[in-house]
Amino acid sequence: MQRLRRLIADRRARRADAAFIIEGPQLVDEAVAAGVEFEAQFIPVDRPESSIGGAGPVHLLSPGVFERVAPTEQPRPPVAVARATEHDARAILQHAAFIVALEAIADPGNLGTIIRSAEAAGADGVVLTPGSVDPHNPKVVRAAAGSLFRIPVLEASLSDVHDGGLTLWGTTSHSEQSPQAYDRADLTGRVAVVLGTEAHGLSADAVGYIDRWLTIPHAGPAESLNVAMAGTVLAFEVRRQRAAEL
Amino acid sequence: MQRLRRLIADRRARRADAAFIIEGPQLVDEAVAAGVEFEAQFIPVDRPESSIGGAGPVHLLSPGVFERVAPTEQPRPPVAVARATEHDARAILQHAAFIVALEAIADPGNLGTIIRSAEAAGADGVVLTPGSVDPHNPKVVRAAAGSLFRIPVLEASLSDVHDGGLTLWGTTSHSEQSPQAYDRADLTGRVAVVLGTEAHGLSADAVGYIDRWLTIPHAGPAESLNVAMAGTVLAFEVRRQRAAEL
User: Fold this and answer.
1) Which of A109, A183, A224 is the closest to B147 by Cβ?
2) What residues have CB less than 8 Å from A121, skipping those under 6 apart?
3) CA-CA distances (angstroms) from residue A106 to A14, A129, A228, B129?
4) Choice between A72 and B200, residue whose per-residue pLDDT is larger
5) Which terminal residue of chain A, N or C, has fewer Cβ atoms less than 10 Å from its own Cβ?
6) Between vectors from CA A151 to CA B224 and to CA A244, what angle results, nearest 5°?
7) Residues of chain B neighbouring A236 (CB-CB closer than 8 A)
8) Is B146 in CB contact (< 8 Å) with chain A?
């Protein structure tokens, strides 16, 4: 029980154990279907039908205990301990045609949405630079709605992305960089779309790795698009340009 | 105090009073800038500097009371009572060139995101059909991040949209309707993009008003795009096609 709570609350525990928590039948089903490996699943003793085949050995908990160890207030069983998939980031980046890279993204919901968008748009991976929220944070796992199990989410640097031979397109809302409108930029090659935080854009360190700049022209105030919306629009523009090429 | 709590929790009270709650300096500032009218603002007595000019007469509350009447757990002052803007839906629809219409949308966060996207993409309004979440629900107000104050959000029917002379493009993930890929559909005329709920798509009633169908081709499982992501992608495609025409 202690371990479950640590895996829910503590990033270092998740890192040390290479394990994380998946809650609820739909997400656990999707993880099983995606080939995620499981260590154990926990269900309330009065809901024996709630275990899921392929999600590891079943542990029965008294209902009060089940609620206390789960990551949400009204948890749906099972709560499962899954093994984090280890990705060889450099190898993936050497062969990737389309990456979404996020510098120091902090909001779990936004990260989850971008992981969904990246999968749906056919990206080969999502790169998180150091300082980002943990992709195995339970809120990210929930917001990613299964996409986390199907697309590699890599903790890597923009230097690694550059070394992979991808063209890094930085996103900006400032005119200083003379960005191209995103739909006029040629995104058909091997590209990484790089997004910064909403508040500050890309850091000076990141800027050093950017090859070209793009922007999303829009109505309304500058902050009207959050990073998840911008990432969704850009990921689908990459997909659109590639589909149009065929 | 009773009234504040009712306006936070009770849609009928908001409707009866044509009033709603805006919390926090940034949102209240944006509402003032957008010309929203205010009845009153509430701040803790120990934070007299937190009142905002233009947000109505200031009422001081003891700190414990302030926290209790606010819509979030760690409220930032002021908490303001704003007057709902009355829109003439039919008049707006007669002249609109681009509408985003949502059938019975339930999730406040998704609605807020779509209101932001619609504003950023230059839509003339967002239509909510009967049965949708209240756009003045505090969670929608927060998620819309100020866009709610700048773009008309209309409670109307698809029949009203049709009567406005717009072409209704229904979104679907099913092939039965023989939809066009969204980026090959001609969205440059007077268009309403119509989205259903994530779980069920558009109702049979709604389908009767749809002129044409479009779909968002994507990788991964069918449900990988939620309604907010789909709405964002479609709104920006409408904008892209219009910009390309100029």
Assistant:
1) A224
2) A98, A235, A236, A238, A239, B218, B219
3) 18, 11, 11, 34
4) A72
5) C
6) 65
7) 216, 218, 233
8) yes
A7: its two tokens: 């895996």
**Is the pLDDT confidence value at A34 over 90?**
yes
In which band, very low, low, confident or very high, does the pLDDT at B199 lie, cut at 50, 70 and 90? low
The Cβ of residue B183 has, within 10 Å, a number of other Cβ atoms equal to 21
A200 has pLDDT over 80: no
Contact A218 B113 (CB under 8 A): no
Q: Given CA atoms A110, A112, A116, A119 in this order, what sign does their dihedral have?
A: positive
Residues of A numbered 184-213 whose beta carbons fall under 8 angstroms of chain B's beta carbons: which are they?
A: none
| Residue range A82-110: mean pLDDT, rounded | 96
Tell me which residue in B113, B120, B146 faces A219 most closely, judged by beta carbons: B120
Share of chain A above pLDDT 90, in %: 83
What's the first-to-final CA gap in chain B, in angstroms? 53
pTM for the model stands at: 0.94
Cβ(B132)–Cβ(B111) under 8 Å? yes
User: Which one, of B67, B8, B73, B78, lies nearest residue B38 by Cα?
Assistant: B78
**Angle subtended at Cα A210 by Cα A205 and Cα A213, rounded to the nearest 5 degrees:** 125
Which pLDDT value is given to residue A173?
85
